[in-house]
Design goal:
Number of strands: 5
Number of helices: 2
Strand order of the largest sheet: 1-5-4-3-2
Helix content: 25-40%
CATH superfamily: RelE-like
CATH topology: YaeB-like fold
Largest sheet: 5 strands, mixed
Structural class: alpha+beta
């Protein structure tokens, strides 16, 4: 198994995560640790304004949006909430 990727949050993503319910915070942590840290390419590659980023489903309407620093093996979490309006 390959080495885990490091995970870092942007200020905006940290605010998003702080607003999640305790149950969703746990789900977010589980996804980050058990899925994305092992294989960040599990997410869907985004197009348009978010080209270069990836998306992974947190709930029906909430997504984890992240980008990768492949050389340094770092995942930058950009958003952790809905992208359907605010």
């Amino acid at each position: 198994m390959s080495a885990r990727w490091e995970i870092r949050f942007t200020k905006r993503a940290k605010k998003d995560a702080d607003r999640l319910t305790p149950k969703l915070k746990d789900k977010l942590r589980d996804i980050l640790v058990e899925v994305l840290a092992l294989n960040p390419y599990e997410g869907k590659k985004l197009l348009g304004d978010l080209s270069g980023s990836y998306s992974y489903r947190l709930t029906f309407k909430d997504r984890i949006v992240y980008s990768l620093d492949e050389k340094r093996r770092i995942i930058y979490i950009e958003r952790a909430r809905t992208h359907y309006g605010e």
